[in-house]
Structures are given as C-alpha cells and as structure tokens.
Amino acid sequence: MALPMLRGCYRFPSTLSFTRLFSNERIILNWSGKTRSPPSSPAGAAAAVRPYSSERGRKKQTQKIVMVGIPNPFIWFRTRIYYFLIRTYFDKEFNIEEFAEGSKQAFSHVSRLLSQSQFEALEGLVAKDLIGKLEEKCNLLPLSYKQALSADPDEIMYTTPGDVGIYYDDNGRKFVSILMRFWYLTSAHLPDDTMEGTRIFQVAIGEEVETKRLLTANYEFQREFTKGVTPDWTITRIEHSKLLD
Prior knowledge:
single chain; alpha+beta; 6-stranded antiparallel β-sheet; 4 helices; 9 strands; about 30% strand
C-alpha cells in the first residue's frame, strides 16, 4: 500500500554514507495585514477568520492570522541544488511543491491512524521497525494526547521541507530522504504544564469561539532509487513535539 498522493520508499538501511543539509525557517505572524517580529524559533498561527457586520449594514470586517515562511537564502539555494540533483539523477518528474502537497496528505492520514491506534494499517506506509516503537509510545499516552496526534487537513497551517539527503550504501544502492515539517491546530484538551512553549489561539467558528493549540510534527520520507526497485516512498521518522519526541 502506498502513501496517499505519494509513492512509497524502501526502508532505510543501517549502514550508509550520506550527505545531509539543514533548513532554518523563520515565521512571521500577520494579523489583519500588520506584520509582527518573527519569533526566535519556527512557530506559527491559526488561520482564524471572524467576519461581522452591524445591523445598519456597515461594511463587513474580517480578522485573520496568516503564516508566512521566510527561509534562510543560503539554505534555500542549497536545497534547490539538491532538488536539481534529484531531478537529474533520480526522478525527472520530481517536483518539491507536488511532493509537499502529497506529504501533507500523507501526514494527515498517518497521524489519524496513530491517534486511533490503528498500527496494523501503518504497514506499507511506515517503516516496519518504526511501527513497533510508535506502538510502544502511543500505548503510554493519555487519551487527550492521542487525540492531539491527529492532524485534520484543514487544520494544517504550514508545511515546509527540512533536511534533504542523498544516500549511497556499499552495495551501490541509492536513496533520497526528505524531512517535512508541519504546524497544525488541535482542539484536544492538553495540560498547560506539559505544553509549555506551544501557542494557544482563540478561533472563531460562526458565533462560537474555540480554543486551539498549535503543535508541530516532523515526518521523514525516504525512497530507494536503485534500478529495479519499486518507486515507493515510506515514512521512517515521526516526531510530534510535546507528544511523541
């Protein structure tokens, strides 16, 4: 079974020589068009929209928060070189925008399975050795934490590539890995004492205001590009900050 909108990948071998590069993203919060100073670490905001008007028919006003990612220019240039190498030597049809969209859908699907403890359904989507570790961790989580693992597609506020790696092993097998970072909202009730550092937002839904917390997750996708191997991607690393570290 392949990941939704992605073709799966081979499980990562234990002994490999590799090159890896890191991306450092900055986030700016925009409230009704006014820019605020970026925080010291990657963060984000909910897209909270609340239109309203008076009984006299005054012009409607809208408030919202928009997330904008500003990558480090040098890192941005280096990652583009890696994308070029992937297209040139591995996959001529590779497109990072399409990959990011597919990874977003895969993240939502896999995170939902995790929250529902459907570990058998992860086979073919997540590396086998990782599934067992995830099951051990998830079985120790309280119900509210499990609920917070699930990321609805409409609640994913921001997606960006992180590490990009091209790998070769001693047998000449070729691998590519891409770490994707996600910021998403959850309405799960989480204790404040263990969620220190996360951001809380009041999101207006119609006439009601719901409290949501912004969480982050890292999912690494890997694929073997050796000739004759099924061109599938698989997830070999899953991290949910404050939940599954």
